[in-house]
Specification:
The chain is an alpha/beta fold. α3 links the parallel β4 and β5. The chain starts with 6 loop residues before the first helix and ends in an 8-residue tail after the last strand.
Length: 283
């Protein structure tokens, strides 16, 4: 019929839903002489990924960010140290285990199933691990539009405390806002976080990086600058570099199984050399 919904319409709808969720009638703040009551800082992965916050994973194409996301799911479900690092212990599983919503709309289902099967999260016949509430892929044709928001609201409301992993920021905003550089795209992420706070959802969002090398941590996030301001912590992965013997120029060493991994944000700054078994998706 040629009917379309503008980004402004979509955001206005989401903001209206947020206002309906927020009562705002309780007393705010702590007065002098009163005891402050704050929730202790809690981690999904000790010292690395905070609970009930937004953590980004940023990397250039084919560096391994989706495999890192699959490793995170496996670590929490199977209660194994993240990336094999004994300092990065997963949070103890609640009754029924950690639940996941995999919003992996940036790639075909065949790719997602390969990553999940490699980590024991999907059987060869396509049966998902029961702790994965839902898996959405490119074939589901979802984005952060009205249809996508309805589905996201339903899934997070029905599964409070679930962990949402979004792949990727670009895929969710491009169809609605044209590209991930528009201010409305960053605003959409902020709106999403306001919504997710109502169900105490921990959100891991994957971002493309604008360059193969050079940009680290939060700076590696491609998209409107307000998106970087919304994250509590940023993990970035990078190809190592090698010198071309003929030209003398430095470039990405895509054949090297090692990667540089940087974390900055809520926690100590980390700069590590990691090695991936890229066939099995382990680190």
């Amino acid at each position: 019929m040629g009917v379309s919904v503008t980004p402004q319409n979509t955001r206005a709808t989401l903001q209206q839903l947020q206002r309906a969720l927020l009562t705002g009638d309780e007393e705010k703040g702590t007065k002098g002489g009163e005891k402050a009551r704050f929730k202790p800082k809690e981690y999904l992965i000790d010292g690395l990924i905070a609970k009930r916050s937004l953590t980004s994973i940023a990397a250039f194409n084919k560096v391994g960010k989706t495999k890192l996301a699959a490793e995170l799911v496996a670590s929490l479900i199977f209660q194994q140290p993240f990336m094999g690092n004994p300092d990065w212990s997963p949070a103890p599983a609640p009754q029924g285990g950690h639940k996941f919503i995999l919003w992996w709309v940036d790639q075909p289902g065949a790719d997602s199933s390969g990553y999940l099967q490699a980590r024991g999260l999907m059987e060869a016949d396509g049966t998902l691990h029961p702790q994965i509430v839902a898996l959405y892929t490119e074939e589901d044709d979802l984005a952060w539009d009205n249809q996508g928001m309805d589905r996201l609201i339903q899934d997070t409301s029905n599964n409070p405390g679930a962990i949402l992993i979004t792949d990727s920021f670009f895929a969710c905003t491009q169809r609605v806002h044209g590209n991930d550089q528009e201010p409305e795209a960053g605003g959409a992420l902020i709106d999403i976080q306001t919504l997710l706070s109502q169900s105490e959802t921990t959100h891991i969002c994957l971002f493309h990086s604008s360059k193969e090398t050079g940009l680290l941590g939060i700076q590696a996030i491609r998209g409107h600058s307000s998106a970087g301001g919304a994250v509590s912590g940023a993990i970035s992965m990078h190809f190592l570099e090698k010198k071309d013997s003929q030209t003398g120029k430095w470039g990405a060493d895509k054949d090297n199984p090692h990667r540089r991994m940087v974390f900055e944000g809520r926690g100590p700054y980390v700069d590590l050399l990691i090695r991936g078994d890229w066939e099995r998706g382990t680190f």
